[in-house]
């Protein structure tokens, strides 16, 4: 038989016949081995312990002997063998000898040993993990294993937890609602379940947990139990809530600023500018009635008044750009870029790739961030060109402002600039994001994204 070395032995254990496969496994030729005691196949310590003779005695007594162990090749190397010795009797039950079948199982043993070591390393890994509670449940939900992370997170030792029902980790209201059993049912039906919610420690305190329950099936798809991984997310949840609260407060502050800007803009437009316009008209009328040089002096006053009116109108535009309400975001940003970039001597462009107009709240935030970004270009970049690109991406507005200025190391881009902090806060308050990338000698890119509509969701309970 292939892979099976078949040998016959005489009653004293000397080799009587030898197959080619036996030669391949052991290394001897038939001429070298026939007539020699089969103990040459055994390691010296087994020979010294009398193992070869004992195996023959057992086979003669019971008819058969099976064993696994180390055997020796002709070159002295060892291999792991599966051996079966069968006693051969004549019709009068007189022992004629033995049939011996040997199979080299070294590869199988090495694979089994590698698997055992892998499983042991995995067991040690699971047991030593501190940040995750990893444990097993039987099909009924009772705890059958427990790692150090589970003890650290939940407070129970392995002796206290094993054998208990895992519902002891749930608040009373969840237990009363049948949540633990429902989670096992869903995991068994769908293969896994993931959940976040309150769990209870041994001391009664609560923590916010991320939980994954995985159903474990055998080869016949029979449920053997569940694997459960728990992570304490309390700190992350508190940090997220603090961030949401900060964003909410910043959002309220930004909203209050915009309301105040609008009020001041209206007051300046409806009162100060109108009054100045009336003064200018009276000065023009007066100048038309006075002789020189008084007429020229009054005309000079009128020019000063008109210049003041122009500056006030510029202030109104910066406080609350009328184009934003009248014509939309692109017109407002384009007008502002044309005005300031032209005044600063910068080549410029505005690319409109919007497929949807953002909400008024998002539009004013985009406009304010663009204002601050362009101001930074003027103050710090020493650029000759600036380009603004607006597009609709992922149900939101993506804006990219690029200059060809001196740039800076990425880690230092915008460091210490209050304007950059304000841009970040505005973007985050609108539930978006902002990034600044810069390369020395290659300019800076300010990129930010805002959702199309304001986020109206409240805090988690």
TrEMBL record:
<dbReference type="InterPro" id="IPR035965">
    <property type="entry name" value="PAS-like_dom_sf"/>
</dbReference>
<dbReference type="Pfam" id="PF02518">
    <property type="entry name" value="HATPase_c"/>
</dbReference>
<keyword id="KW-0418">Kinase</keyword>
<dbReference type="InterPro" id="IPR050482">
    <property type="entry name" value="Sensor_HK_TwoCompSys"/>
</dbReference>
<dbReference type="InterPro" id="IPR003594">
    <property type="entry name" value="HATPase_dom"/>
</dbReference>
<keyword id="KW-0808">Transferase</keyword>
<dbReference type="GO" id="GO:0046983">
    <property type="term" value="F:protein dimerization activity"/>
</dbReference>
<dbReference type="GO" id="GO:0006355">
    <property type="term" value="P:regulation of DNA-templated transcription"/>
</dbReference>
<protein>
    <submittedName>
        <fullName>PAS domain S-box-containing protein</fullName>
    </submittedName>
</protein>
<dbReference type="GO" id="GO:0016020">
    <property type="term" value="C:membrane"/>
</dbReference>
<dbReference type="Pfam" id="PF00989">
    <property type="entry name" value="PAS"/>
</dbReference>
<feature type="domain" description="PAS">
    <location>
        <begin position="1"/>
        <end position="45"/>
    </location>
</feature>
<dbReference type="InterPro" id="IPR036890">
    <property type="entry name" value="HATPase_C_sf"/>
</dbReference>
<feature type="domain" description="PAC">
    <location>
        <begin position="65"/>
        <end position="117"/>
    </location>
</feature>
<dbReference type="InterPro" id="IPR000700">
    <property type="entry name" value="PAS-assoc_C"/>
</dbReference>
<keyword id="KW-0902">Two-component regulatory system</keyword>
<feature type="domain" description="PAC">
    <location>
        <begin position="193"/>
        <end position="245"/>
    </location>
</feature>
<dbReference type="GO" id="GO:0000155">
    <property type="term" value="F:phosphorelay sensor kinase activity"/>
</dbReference>
<dbReference type="Pfam" id="PF07730">
    <property type="entry name" value="HisKA_3"/>
</dbReference>
<dbReference type="InterPro" id="IPR000014">
    <property type="entry name" value="PAS"/>
</dbReference>
<dbReference type="InterPro" id="IPR011712">
    <property type="entry name" value="Sig_transdc_His_kin_sub3_dim/P"/>
</dbReference>
<dbReference type="InterPro" id="IPR001610">
    <property type="entry name" value="PAC"/>
</dbReference>
<feature type="domain" description="PAS">
    <location>
        <begin position="118"/>
        <end position="191"/>
    </location>
</feature>
<dbReference type="InterPro" id="IPR013767">
    <property type="entry name" value="PAS_fold"/>
</dbReference>
């Amino acid at each position: 038989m292939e892979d099976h070395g078949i040998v016959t032995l005489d009653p004293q254990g000397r080799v009587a016949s030898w197959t080619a496969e036996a030669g391949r496994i052991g290394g001897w030729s038939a001429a070298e081995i026939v007539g020699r005691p089969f103990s040459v196949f055994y390691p010296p310590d087994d020979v010294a312990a009398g193992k070869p003779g004992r195996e023959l005695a057992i086979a003669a007594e019971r008819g058969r002997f099976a064993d696994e162990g180390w055997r020796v090749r002709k070159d002295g190397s060892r291999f792991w063998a599966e051996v079966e010795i069968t006693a051969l009797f004549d019709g009068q039950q007189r022992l004629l000898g033995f049939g011996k079948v040997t199979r080299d199982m070294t590869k199988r043993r090495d694979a089994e040993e590698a698997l055992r070591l892998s499983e042991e390393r995995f067991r040690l890994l699971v047991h030593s993990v501190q940040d995750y509670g990893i444990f097993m449940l039987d099909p009924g939900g009772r705890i059958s294993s427990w790692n150090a992370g589970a003890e650290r997170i939940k407070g129970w030792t392995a002796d206290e937890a094993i054998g208990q029902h895992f519902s002891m980790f749930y608040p009373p209201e969840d237990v009363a609602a049948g949540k633990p059993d429902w989670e096992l049912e869903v995991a068994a039906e769908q293969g896994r379940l993931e959940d976040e919610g309150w769990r209870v420690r041994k001391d009664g305190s609560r923590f916010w947990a991320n939980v994954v329950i995985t159903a474990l099936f055998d080869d016949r798809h029979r449920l053997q139990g569940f694997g459960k991984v728990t992570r304490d997310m309390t700190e992350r949840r508190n940090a997220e809530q603090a961030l949401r609260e900060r964003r909410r407060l910043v959002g309220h502050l930004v909203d209050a600023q915009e309301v105040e800007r609008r009020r001041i803009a209206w007051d300046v437009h409806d009162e100060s500018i109108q009054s100045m316009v009336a003064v200018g008209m009276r000065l023009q009328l007066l100048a038309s009635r006075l002789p020189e040089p008084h007429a020229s002096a009054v005309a000079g006053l009128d020019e000063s008044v008109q210049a003041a009116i122009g500056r006030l109108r510029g202030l109104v535009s910066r406080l609350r750009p009328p184009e934003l309400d009248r014509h939309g975001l692109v017109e407002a940003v384009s007008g502002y870029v044309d005005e300031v970039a032209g005044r600063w001597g910068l080549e410029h462009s505005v690319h409109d790739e919007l497929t949807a107009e953002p909400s008024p709240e998002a539009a004013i935030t985009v406009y304010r961030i663009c204002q601050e970004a362009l101001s930074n270009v003027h103050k710090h970049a020493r650029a000759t060109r600036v380009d603004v690109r607006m597009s609709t991406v992922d149900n939101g507005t993506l804006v990219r402002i690029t200059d060809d200025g001196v740039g800076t190391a990425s880690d230092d881009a915008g460091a210490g600039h209050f304007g950059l902090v304000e841009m970040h806060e505005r973007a985050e308050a609108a539930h978006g994001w902002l990034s600044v990338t810069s390369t020395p000698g290659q300019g800076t890119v300010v990129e930010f994204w805002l959702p199309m509509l304001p986020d109206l969701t409240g805090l988690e309970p």
